[in-house]
Description:
The structure holds two protein chains of two kinds.
Chain A: H1 2-20, H2 25-45, H3 68-99
Chain B: H1 7-21, H2 27-52, E1 58-61, E2 72-75, H3 77-99, H4 109-125, H5 129-147, H6 153-184, H7 189-198, H8 205-222, H9 230-237, H10 240-263, H11 275-297, H12 301-322, H13 325-356, H14 369-384, H15 390-401, H16 408-435, H17 447-451, H18 464-483, H19 485-499, H20 502-510
Antiparallel strand pairs in B: 1-2
Helix pairs in contact in B: 1-2, 1-4, 2-3, 3-4, 3-10, 3-13, 3-18, 4-5, 5-6, 5-10, 6-8, 6-9, 7-20, 8-10, 9-10, 9-12, 10-12, 10-13, 11-12, 11-16, 12-13, 12-16, 13-14, 13-15, 13-18, 13-19, 14-16, 14-18
Amino acid sequence: MEALVASAVGVLTAAGIFLILRRRTFPVILGLSLITYAVNVFLFATGRLALNAPAVLNKYEEVPYTDPLPQALVLTAIVISFGMTAVIVMIALSAYLSAKDDHIDMSASDSVDAPGEDA
Amino acid sequence: MNHWIVAPIVLPAILAPFIIMVLRYHLDLQRIFSVAGVVGLLGIALTITAQASGGDIQVYELGDWPAPFGIVLVLDRMSAMMVLLTALLALPIVLYAIGSGWDDRGKHFHALFHFQLMGVCGAFLTGDAFNLFVFFEVLLIASYGLMTHGGGAVRLKAGVQYVTYNLLGSTLFLFALGTIYGVTGTLNMADLAIRVAEIPPEDTALLRVGAVLLLLVFCIKAAVLPLHFWLPASYANAPLPVAALFAIMTKVGAYSILRVYTLVFGPDVAVTDGLIGDWLQPAALLTLAVGAIGILGTQHIARMVAFCAIASMGTLLIAISLFDETATAAALYYVYHSTLATALMFLVADLVMQRQGGAIEPKPPMAQSGLISSLFFVGAIAMAGMPPLSGFIGKLLVLDAARDAPDANAVWAVILIGSFVTIVGLARAGTLIFWKSHDAKIDTRSEHEDSEEDEPPSAPEPQPALAFTSVFGAVFGLVLLTLFAGPALEYTRKTAEQLFTPYQYITAVMGREE
C-alpha cells in the first residue's frame, strides 16, 4: 500500500509539473490542481498509513488507531486549495476575456517595459 | 491571558466582512471605517509593542488549549515590532489610496486591504507552523484581489502569473510541513524546536529535506534570487499603492526565515548547519546585485521601484544570513527602513505615473513637478542608503556587522558597489523624468499621445492634497526612524538577543502547566 500511495503522489506531481510548464492557462490550472491533489495525498500519509483504524484513542483496550491530525490538516489544505483554484480560474477567465488570448506569458507589447527588457 | 495579542487579527477580521456586507455601496463610509480601522490597528500595535518591550514572552492559547495541542499566538519583541511596522505602513497607504482615487477604480478595495492586514498580522503573531501556512494563504488570497484591483488586460495577465507562482509556493509549503510533521510529529514551533534537537543526527535525512523545502518557500516570498521572477512583473503591474503595501509581504518571508531558523533550526542545530550561511548568503548577494542592475537597466518607473524592492531584500537577507546577534539587530532595523522606503518609492512612482505615464524618458513637464521631484529625491536618497536618512544608518550597521564575517570582503564589495549602481540608476531615472522635461527641445504639444499609453485617465476627482500628505507621512516615518535610531537600535538589539536565546520562547510556550 505504501508503494501505491507513494507512486500516486509521485505520478500526480510529475504530471502536474509537466502541465504547469505549458504555455496556456488551462493546462497550467489543471497542473496546479494535480499538484494540490498530490500534496493532499502526501499530507494524508504523513501520519503513517493504517488500515481500518479509527482516528480516536481507545483507553479501554489496545486497538490500532490512526493519527487524526493529518486528517485535520488535509481538510484545511483541501479547502484552501479549492478556494485558490476557484480564484485563479476567475482571474484567468477575466484575463482571457479582456486580453483575447490565454497565453500565460506576457508578450513584449503587454509588458510595461519596452521590448528587450528581460522579464 | 492577555487578549490584546489576538486583537490585531480580530479587528481586521471583523472590519473587512462588515465593510463588504454593510457598507458595500457606500464608498465614503467604507473610507471612514477603513481609516478608523487602520488607526485602531496602530493603537493596538503600539499597545502590544509596549507590552512586549519589557522582554517577557506572552502566549495566547486559542480556545484555551495548552501549547502542543492547540494553536498558540506568541507575542515577543520581534512579532510586536513587525505588527507595529504593518500598522505604520498601512496608514499612509490607505490614505494615499483614498487621496488618489485608487480605491474607487474597482470594488472592495478596503475590505481586501483589511483581510490582507489580518493575514500579515496573523503570520507575525502565530506560534504554529501550520497556522503560519493558513495566515500566508489569508494574506495571499487578499493580495490576489488587490493585485488585480482595477482590472485591465495586462494587470490580469500579470495577476495570473502571480497567483500561479504563489499557488505553487503554497503547495511547496505543504510538502515541507508534511515532511516535518512526518518526522517530528508536531507543528508547534516551540515543540518542534525541542523535538528537532532530540533527533539523532543519523536519522535526519527527511528532516533536512523539510528544512530546505521550508527555506525555499520563505525565499519565494522574500524574492531571493533564483526565486524572484514573480516580483517585478507583479509589482509593476499591480496598482502601485497596493505594491507599496506588498512591501510588507516580502518582509513576511524574511520574518519567517528569522523566526524558524533561529527557533527551530537554530545556529547550533547540526541538521541544518550551513544552510543559512553557505546557501542563503550567496543567494542574498546575488539578489542585491541583480536588483541593482535591474534599477539601472529598466525603462519603466514601476519596474524600477520593484527592482529597488528586490535590492533592499538582498541587503536585508545578507544581514540575516550573517546569522549572529549584531547582524540580526541590524537586519531588524533595516526591515523598518526598507519597508518604509520601498512604500515611499512606490507611492512617488504612482504620483508620476498618474501624471505622465511610467516610461523613463524625457516628457513634457507634469503638474506639481517640483513637489514630486523632491519627494522622489528623498525616496531615492533613502533607498540608495545615502546620508542623512535611515538607509545610510541601516547599511552602515549591516556593513559593521559583516566586518568579522568569514567572507566580509564579498559582502562589503557587493553592498557598496550595489549601492553605487543604485544611486546611478535612480539618478538616471530622476534626471530623465524631472530635469530633461524642462529641456527646450521637448515638444509640449505631444502631451496627449504620450500620457494615454499606460493608464486610462479615469481618476475620479482625486484629492491630491490627501495623497501628498500621505506620501509626506511616509517621509516623516523615515525621518523619525533616522532621528530615533538610538532607541530603535536598542530595541532591535534586545530583540536579536531574545531571538538567539530560544529557550525563553520554548519555556514560555511549552512550560505552562495549567
